Amino acid sequence: MRRLEVVPSLVHGVSVSPLSDLEVASIRADFPALGEFVNGQPLAYLDSGATAQRPLAVLDAERDFLLHSNAAVHRGAHTLAALATEAYEDARATVADFVGASPAEIVWTSNATDALNLVAYGMANASHGRGGPAARRFALGSGDEIVITEAEHHSNLVPWQELAAVTGASLKYVPVRDDGTWTADDAAAVITERTRLIAFAHVSNVTGYVAPVSDIVALAHAVGALVVLDACQSAPHRRLNLVELDVDFAAFSGHKMGGPNGIGVLYGRADLLDALPPFRTGGSMINTVTMEGSDFLPAPQRFEAGTQPVSQAVALAAAVRYLESVGLDRIDEHENALAQRMLAGLADIPGIQVVGPAAGVTRAGLVSFDVVGVHAHDVGQYLDSRGIAVRVGHHCAQPLHRRLGLTATTRASAYLYTSTDDVDRFLAAVAEVRPYFGVDE
Fold first, then answer.
1. Are residues 30 and 118 located together in one domain of the fold?
2. Least C-beta-crowded within 10 Å: which of 6, 253, 288, 386?
């Protein structure tokens, strides 16, 4: 296979080199799951785009909290409740700092899908008169437009379809090009004076394309539209300052960044969160309740009804500290180098159609591809027989696959613990797929 010479690149104006093989080996030792064998083969885990493995530091942090500090937060006057509340809010501050925000701008959700739905349902409630005068900025009606892209994950598509349906607004989309990417010029052709919201992924979970966030924010704000950023594939992998990006809302999940399941994050500008009506109501988010009505706490508590994900928040903060100890810029560069290695290797294998940016163009550390003549599910099963875990299917992006003329693709996604050996084993196995299934070259 062709080898790419990896040289230090500039990230944020600073020379950054990828993680060395020795450093990656040291990191891998922190992730117990990576020592497992699958079908008699050492596990090569290339499905971090779906769910990342968790380091011992995260597992230990959650276990330590549950062993010594577990209690209901923001309730009770006893010492354990105070310790739990302190840990819970310290975790919020850690995650806020991770994305350049203030703690009041971080809402705990159950996952990123929940976070995006929180915004959509809040806007729907505002459109039906809830939230008072401050919420009118979120109200939509006939003639208003919501803009997304054709490349979106269903979690950043279906909520906006529903919002359009219940408010009478129109849902428009930025079409992708033949490789699955799109540009700011493509978006500019769709955004109009009637656009009230534009939602898009920072990084595509299918193509690895990195969106021109600043350009889209400028276009949106020029017409008074809100910007919702799906940061699920960017927050775990690259340095992210949501305030500097000037987005209005953003969502990401814990399980994709070495944290636990059951917790996600909604970032929102403080003034917007305080004005957005809640859509999930009950205990923990109220100020005063009478038999005639209720009023709600300020953000972020107004959006955290019910029993909070306390141990999960503590574990997510531990995941953030772990990533920061390695360095997000170095993780980003490491993954980009691995993606280029995958692209170069796949280019040498007959019958492989890669989607997304071409080789040599910066992308996230994931590559989706079609093996001509072999269904993606068969590809995935063959790779699994070799101990290689990848994702197969439409990756919750049916419209994008339909546009590309594909029913499914195989996706290999890297993370900070992915080694060059993982990638080389993957490439060797992909080269065996078509001969194994008897497909002519």
1. no
2. 288
In the chain, what percentage of residues exceed pLDDT 70?
96
Residue 10 has pLDDT above 60, yes or no: no
389's enclosing H/E stretch is strand 388-389
CATH of the domain at 391: 3.90.1150.10
Separation of alpha carbons 356 and 253, rounded Å? 23
Residues 70 and 172 both lie in one domain? yes
Point out the residues that are catalytic: 396
Residue 311 pLDDT level (bands cut at 50, 70, 90): very high
CB 207 within 8 A of CB 179: yes
Q: Other C-beta atoms within 10 Å of 26: how many?
A: 13
Angle at 417 between CA 7 and CA 96, to 5 degrees: 95
Q: Tell me the average pLDDT of the chain.
A: 94
Q: pLDDT per residue over 115-159, tens digit each?
A: 999 999 999 999 999 999 999 999 999 999 999 999 999 999 999
Q: Give the DSSP H or E segment for 22.
A: helix 21-28
The pLDDT tens digits of the residues spanning 360-390 come to: 888 899 999 999 999 999 999 999 999 999 9
pTM above 0.85, yes or no: yes
Strands (E), 400-439: 409-413
Q: Which of 276, 302, 324 is the last residue of a domain?
A: 324
Residues 40 and 65 in one domain: no
In this predicted structure, what is the pLDDT of residue 14? Answer: 53
Task: Give the helix/strand (H/E) hosting 66.
Answer: helix 56-68
Spatial separation of the C-alpha atoms in residues 126 and 138, rounded to whole Å: 6
Of 365, 392, 115, nearest in space to 254 by CA:
115
* Amino acid found at 59: L
How far apart are the C-alpha atoms of 422 and 327, rounded to whole Å?
A: 21
In this structure, what CATH number is given to the domain that contains residue 292?
A: 3.40.640.10
Check: CB of residue 58 under 8 Å from CB of residue 417: no
Same-domain status, 115 and 199:
yes
Residues 6+ apart with CB under 8 A from 7: none
CA angle 345, 351, 353 (to 5 degrees): 70
pLDDT digits (tens, 9 = 90+) for 400-421: 999 999 999 999 999 999 999 9
- Provide φ and ψ at 286, rounded to 5°: -105, 160
For the chain, the C-alpha Rg in angstroms (whole number) is 22
pLDDT of residue 15: 60
The residue among 309, 274, 310 whose CA lies nearest residue 295 is 274
Does 51 fall in a domain?
Answer: no
**Assigned domain for 354 exists:** yes
Q: DSSP character for 265?
A: E
> According to the model, what pLDDT value does residue 284 have?
86
